Amino acid sequence: MGRMIATNSSRPALGVLLVGLLCVRAAAAAEPSIHIVDAWARATPPGVETGAVYCKILNHGGADRLVDARSPAAHGVEIHASVSENGVVEMRRIDALPVDAGASVELAPGGTHLMLVGLAAPLAAGAKVELTLVFAVAGEIAVEVPVVDARAPPAAHEHEHEHHAQ
Ligand SMILES: [Cu+2]
Fold first, then answer.
1. How far is the CA of 161 from the centre of ligand 1 (A)?
2. Pair 58, 120 in one domain
3. Domain assignment of residue 92, given as a range
4. How far is the CA of 114 from the centre of ligand 1 (A)?
5. Residues 103, 138 share a domain
């Protein structure tokens, strides 16, 4: 009788311990790990009040989503998707941009982008724009975004520079 009581009381304790360990491991595996690379903003002519920012969002961890962004360079920053309808491409504001576990999401001309709305001043090529991206799980990530002249294809231009530097 004494033996049975000892067995019964030790089992729940072990069970709780195991469940606790599993929860910790599951949480660690689901943690997003976000990196922002190849960010650039398109230079804007005087009088234009909006600008676009492009980048790649790399996620080496669990699922997350971009829910907000802000910059001292503009009144507001919106997440825009480009939607093609009857051959016409339109920009539409979206509330959030999902970044799946282990996925990379590319923000590029003609596709999803960040729109700087109400620019404080024109974006001059060579300048840098401070941008804060807000993710639902990973929180805030600050990025320094170089402004690039739109007349040169920016991605190719930068890669060329990397080649010359090496
Ligand atoms: Cu837009």
1. 28
2. yes
3. 34-165
4. 6
5. yes
